[in-house]
What does this fold into?
Amino acid sequence: MPAGYARLMTLARPAIARRSAAPLPRLYVMTDAVRLPDPSALIPHLPRGAAIILRNGEWPRAERRALGLKLKRLCARHGIALLVANDPALAAALRADGVHWSAFVLTRHAHTDFARRRFRLITAAAHDAAESRRAEAAGADALFLSPVFATASHPGAKPLGMVGFARLARSARRPVVALGGITLETVKRLAPFSPAGFATVRSGL
It folds into this structure.
């Protein structure tokens, strides 16, 4: 197992999901249509209790479903949770553990009531205080505050930085997950704020 993933798990603060007695994942690996389109080879190397978030929204639905079926089998075998981004119908068809909402979708047309009833785990992205409140109202168990640091995934986005992350984390009424520019070096700077988890698109740490 790459030592970096296990280290991220130990640096995150354990937190409990509101709909379940099970703890929230402390490590999330997010797919990316360019940087990490298929994490299948990575799953056996992740610590048990981590999570994969299937995004790849640019792909045709049939291709996402096919990948989701493969990931579900691997995740079940290795004790990894599977979440599907912005598509509760696909998540239900895959019998996924949960749904992840992007801030864009929550702002416009997320079917949050269906997801709240159907899944054990709901996470949501937030970039500012208004989006944090919206995610909480949608029933999110954890908030992905991003981007904390500069990231290749969103090269033009202004990072929250330490001050911005601290402000949002203090005001949040849900456990927070740090996303954006997450490395073993940057997470050390976040230690004083005790995030409940870390999310990354990196295929190795």
